[in-house]
């Protein structure tokens, strides 16, 4: 099955000169965790809720004064509508990404998520493997001590 059959065709996007606050508001409005960053209709990056948390908020930056272009991930991995669903899943797993912008002639035409693959019958068994690959670097073993106290500043 081709990506064009299951991709979301109506995709919210943001410009690199927009603020991080605008990106967060757009994510909230559309209930998504990432937004393609476009110059015109060409995808030049992607910004995620994690980018906002780690690259802006955790660094003490003012998200209202920070542009999307300053914290986005540039040169994102892209798919195309004629791609096979299994090929897209492999690409997402290898690159540890949960969302894949879909372009045709350098123009944003859709997006596919790991969740989209998980509901596709022929990909259901493979979706768990892809999620494992995507999440692999995020798995860090730590010891949790519920008795430990933390000081409040």
What do these coordinates show?
- The chain has one domain (3-137): CBS-domain (Roll).
- Helix content is 34%, strand content 18%.
- The chain contains 6 helices and 5 strands.
- The chain has helices at 20-30, 49-57, 68-71, 85-95, 114-118, 124-135; strands at residues 34-39, 42-48, 73-74, 99-104, 107-113.
- It has a 3-stranded antiparallel sheet.
- The chain is globular and about 45 Å long.
Write the layout of secondary structure elements.
Layout: H1 20-30, E1 34-39, E2 42-48, H2 49-57, H3 68-71, E3 73-74, H4 85-95, E4 99-104, E5 107-113, H5 114-118, H6 124-135
Antiparallel strand pairs: 1-2, 2-3, 4-5
Helix pairs in contact: 4-6
Quick gist of this model?
With about 150 residues, the chain is α+β, with helices and mostly antiparallel strands.
